[in-house]
Write a structure and sequence with these properties.
heterodimer; A: mainly alpha; two-stranded antiparallel ribbon; 11 helices; B: alpha/beta; Rossmann fold; 2 domains; 10 helices
Chain lengths: 308, 236
């Protein structure tokens, strides 16, 4: 039972990262119907920046906020310069463009920071490990019933839940949130209501990338370092989380992410010889498949049904 | 006083020009009906006035040139459009639809009063104020689309075929609401219709649109007195 609890908390903290990536995907998808394939790489780019801020002596919390600012600029600039002109000509081409951006950002990270993991004493890093948002020394843990519940894992989960709550308020209680929902629902009537839909889309991409940036920082912190491949699997899990939760539901994205984190941890923990580290992704996907067979729009997605 | 004045208005979609130098006027307090067959350019006219399409020519609203204005600036200037078909936000609740209609307004209290007012005018919307708009019937959605447009407190309401796909009784109900707003509040309306009979008797003035041009205009009585027009457009 205690071991179960430990695996649950670990799963929730890894799931938190998937949830953040999934949230970014969902925010962009709701606004424009596009799947941003570069969501994970945008987050990685920001995670590198936060490493760099750390090298310059900036503490992790302000560095994280700056990193989210970088994400916001990157996301909104991407929408204005790349997505908007191309979406007007061919919506499908947007998907290809985001794949191109995926490759380009990864190349850019390598060109700036090299292809070794960072921090790295070999390239003279000041930091020993990638900074963590919460205490993560070996003794920073509770030991109820002899199992380890690490402060860092609990902290991450709480952070993601607080962020989800703030986003809920943003979407449902502010005028900007109303305009985002209106644009997602009917872009032409949004224009006819006086909403500057272009600005809303720009802000949505910025917001999505900023949330993703937080995901990148948390992931690099859990991992202890940042490297060029850090976000590959996380992006796949994040897409799976968005699919599971429902691609148009931010709350669903968070729950989907947490579920996938828990499922993979429980599966690899309880059936190590059957599942192990290599196959835990497979287990998560079997669960998703089963859910989608019963509910094609995801757990919390709205099926597009309308009375005529 | 001239509220809206379009001269030499041309607009279309990409290489296809639909409107070819259209002249149109709406006076303050008028209920103007534009009749035309499918493909005559009625919807294009509406979209051009609202700024959803790029357009050539000249459009003036209250004496101000709005030819180059963006859709949100045109809403702020006082023009609201009920688009053809579903003008609602299907995923949003009825109440959020109305809030969205008031997006350009900053007076929270006035917005609350107006929501209460339109829910009183359309009692069926009041019963469903927390439901998603997509779950409403076609007639209820059209009422919501009109209420949504009115939430911006427009000086000119553009209505694009509100009767489309609705049962005759529902259409009559909608028209009587529009007529009441026009008569009691002096709301200026520009309405396009294929269904001539319904629209004619509330119109202060009628335009006939054919392949992107105005081919006739006048009062409803004048136009129905003309035999050829009556046969072609009014079907009696």
């Amino acid at each position: 039972m205690a071991l179960f609890f430990q695996r649950l908390v670990d799963g929730l903290s890894y799931g938190s990262v998937y949830a953040l990536i999934a949230l970014g995907l969902v925010i962009v998808y709701r606004g424009t119907g596009h799947l941003n394939f570069a969501q994970g790489e945008m987050a990685l780019f920001c995670a590198y920046f936060v490493y760099q801020f750390g090298e310059w002596g900036i503490p992790i919390w302000p560095a994280m906020l700056l990193g989210m600012g970088v994400g916001f600029l990157l996301g909104s600039a991407t929408e204005v310069t790349l997505i908007r002109p191309i979406a007007r000509r061919s919506p499908f081409a947007v998907f290809i463009v985001t794949i191109g951006l995926f490759t380009f950002l990864n190349w850019l990270d390598g060109a700036i920071w090299g292809n070794q993991q960072l921090p790295n004493s070999g390239v003279g890093s000041e930091q020993l490990t990638y900074p963590s948002l919460f205490p993560n020394d070996p003794q920073d843990q509770w030991l109820p019933f002899g199992v380890s519940i690490r402060y860092e894992r609990v902290g991450i989960l709480v952070l993601v839940l607080v962020l989800t709550g703030l986003l809920f308020l943003l979407f449902n209680k502010t005028k900007f949130g109303l305009s985002m929902r209106a644009v997602a629902s009917n872009s032409e009537s949004a224009k006819l209501s006086g909403i500057r839909t272009n600005r809303v889309l720009m802000m949505s991409w910025g917001l999505a990338a900023a949330i993703g940036a937080l995901g990148g920082v948390v992931q690099a912190g859990l991992n202890g370092n940042v490297n060029l491949g850090l976000m590959f699997t996380v992006f796949i899990y994040g897409s799976a989380a968005a699919t599971l939760g429902g691609f148009d539901s931010p709350g669903g994205a968070v729950i989907g992410g947490l579920l996938i984190g828990v499922i993979e941890n429980l599966a690899s923990g309880y059936a190590p010889q059957w599942v192990g580290q290599e196959m835990k992704l497979g287990v998560a996907f079997i669960v998703i498949l089963a859910v989608l067979l019963v509910k094609p729009s995801g757990l919390f997605g709205t099926a597009k049904v309308e009375r005529v | 006083m001239t509220l809206l004045k379009a001269t030499g208005l041309s607009a279309g979609y990409g290489p296809v020009t639909v409107l070819q130098g259209l002249d149109l006027e709406v006076q303050q307090g008028e209920f103007v009906v534009m009749l035309g067959a499918n493909g005559a350019g009625k919807t294009t006219t509406m979209r051009a006035i609202s700024g959803l399409l790029s357009r050539q020519g000249h459009i003036e609203f209250e004496g101000v040139d709005i030819t180059k204005a963006s859709p949100d600036a045109i809403v702020r200037a006082g023009i609201a459009q009920v688009p053809q078909g579903r003008g609602t936000f299907p995923e949003l609740s009825v109440e959020d639809n109305l809030h969205t209609g008031a997006f350009v307004r900053a007076d929270a209290e006035g917005v609350r009063d107006d929501i209460a007012r339109w829910l009183a005018v359309f009692p069926r919307l009041a019963e469903r104020r927390h439901q998603r708009a997509g779950s409403l019937s076609g007639g209820e959605q059209q009422m919501l689309a009109i209420a949504r447009a009115l939430m911006s407190r427009p000086k000119l309401l553009l209505c694009d075929e509100p009767s489309l796909g609705l049962a005759p009784l529902i259409t009559q109900e909608l028209f009587s609401v529009l007529e009441g707003l026009h008569r009691d509040e002096g709301l200026s309306v520009l309405l396009v219709e294929q269904n001539a009979n319904l629209a004619m008797h509330i119109a202060s003035r009628v335009y006939l649109l054919e392949t992107g041009r105005i081919v006739a205009s006048g009062s409803a009585a004048e136009l129905s007195a003309d035999d050829s027009i009556r046969k072609a457009y009014l079907g009696f």
